[in-house]
Design goal:
The chain is α+β, with helices and mostly antiparallel strands. The protein has seven helices and eight strands; from the N terminus they run ααβααβαββββββαα. Strand 7 and strand 8 form a beta hairpin. Keywords: Membrane, Signal, Transmembrane, Transmembrane helix.
């Protein structure tokens, strides 16, 4: 990694030096250069400002990279709270911690991804007999299978150590069936006199996943019922390498809005189920 970073810095330095030379050639000092003498002034004018633009973009990129090196990854943090009415805590908890009770037509997770449950999630062995063949297969169809070694199990209530593989929906085009992420349940508690707690950690990112692997952690707390209402709090955090990407992709805003929309969707699912029954 250090060697790759050094190569990137050297390439950037060379490109910046080249841009300075081209800018000076387009708008020379007292001694006019003959390098672009045959070109019209409009061309030199556009070339100069193009060099200024590229120089500015690369400067921002370098600063962003140096900030990552100096201060570490950028944080994305979100928080949401919701008050459920007319449903028991146990009923609402199934929509969060029991994938076997989820409905594809209603549940927000199944509406956006295909879900399969796994257990015994482990890192792959460091040495493989057919490493070249495995590498070729991954290059041919990247993200088709998770990198983690895990055992498939039937959908059921989440337990510590169990996880879910989220794949792009079958009707989502070229990315259909590719792994989006692998999430593992690191803690689940269902006490009778305290809040239900579910903590999920993303152990692998796939196609389209925006955060660094092993950095996204989400926690859901569902408190005991009071006067027919159930309060639910959801918090989460994750890391990204680029602060520019965090701003450009609106990760902070989108993550916050997604958390709020998720809890609202769970409320709507509970309402529809009660109406059907």
């Amino acid at each position: 990694m250090a060697f790759a970073d050094q190569r990137k810095r050297k390439v950037l330095i060379v490109l910046l030096s080249l841009l300075q030379v081209l800018g000076a050639a387009a708008y020379g000092g007292k001694k006019k250069s003959k390098f672009l003498e045959a070109y019209p002034m409009v061309f030199k004018f556009l070339l100069f400002w193009w060099c200024v633009f590229v120089f500015a973009v690369m400067t921002v990129y370098i600063i962003d990279h140096l900030m990552y090196k100096r201060f570490g990854p950028a944080k994305v943090v979100w928080k949401a709270e919701h008050i459920f009415k007319g449903a028991s805590r146990e009923e609402l908890w199934t929509y969060l911690a029991n994938p076997s009770k989820w409905s594809e037509s209603d549940h927000p997770v199944l509406q956006t991804a295909d879900v399969s449950m796994v257990c015994d999630i482990k890192d792959p062995p460091s040495e493989k007999e057919n490493e070249e063949e495995d590498l070729a297969a991954k290059e041919e169809k990247p993200f088709e299978h998770p990198k983690k070694v895990c055992q498939s199990i039937e959908l059921g209530p989440l337990k510590k150590g169990h996880g879910m593989i989220l794949r792009h929906k079958a009707d989502s085009g070229p990315q259909a069936g590719r792994v989006f992420c692998v999430r593992e349940c690191s803690q689940i508690e269902e006490p009778s006199d305290g809040p239900f707690v579910l903590i999920m950690r993303t152990v692998e990112g796939g196609l389209g996943y925006p955060f660094l692997e092993n950095t996204e952690i989400s926690e859901v707390e569902m408190f005991p019922s009071e006067d027919g209402t159930v309060r639910c709090k959801m918090t989460g955090m994750a890391d990204v390498t680029s602060r520019i990407f965090r701003w450009w992709a609106s990760l902070q805003k989108d993550s916050q809005e997604s958390a709020v929309a998720f809890l609202q969707s769970i409320d709507q699912v509970a309402v529809r189920v009660r109406q059907k029954s």
